[in-house]
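Pinned message: reference record for PPR3D phosphatase
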Amino acid sequence: PPAAHTNSSMTLRSSTAAKGGPQPNKLQSSTSSSCDPALRPIIRRRARSLPTSPERRKRAAVQCQVPGCQSRVNRVRFADALGLELTEVKVFQTGEDPSIPLHVLSRLSINSDLWYSSSDLEFTMQCLVPDFQQPADCMDFSSRLQEQQVCLERVTSSDLGLSGTIQVRNVAFEKQVSVRYTFNQWKSLHEVCAHWHRSIPEKNGQDQVDVFTFFLPVPPFLLQLCSVVQFAARYQVNGQEYWDNNRGNNYSLTCRTHPLKMPRECEESWIHFI
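Predicted structure (tokens):
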């Protein structure tokens, strides 16, 4: 009968809905009935270097399509990924103590004196002091340069040695500038090459001038009181040789004591690198 047929059809639909339709969320129902939040991992501890992601490997495998271009892939691997230790401990024996330079030891001694001092500390340091006026500060510097073709401009001293600048007239492009110096009144001598630093354009009708820099290494054991360093500048160009020897007297620097006064508040500003 039609009524029976309708009932069977309704039964089929309800059965289908029960099998394929949306099922009730058991987790939500159980969660809603409980006050405890759902647990999920929030920390993942890394035991070793993670492998390269597939996307990164894919990008690394793509070769450059430009002709003549050689694609280079840089890869970084950590030591622990190769089964090695990430740290290395070095134990020094008593006979393997590092060698500390003398100028560092002197500064450490100054810092020690500052620590135990209750007032400003005044101490003396040994350094090379020029026995001449800086040529660049002289009124006749330009005339000396025009006359000699080469002239020392300025020299300064430090813990490691002497550094300075030399001016030469730009007679030709190919030129060589050097400094000849001695520690023992010319019983033995040394010579170092100066390096081009910059050019000074023409000014007041004078030719272009090139500036060279030089450095004279002075060992710390030679920095004794009254020790003297002498030097002269040499300029070679177009097969000619020109000298600047301070008008025959040579440039000399004498090791002297220089007084320094350090305030107490500067104690914390000393930083030493060994």
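Pinned by admin. Summary line: The helical segments are 2-20, 26-32, 54-61, 102-116, 141-148.
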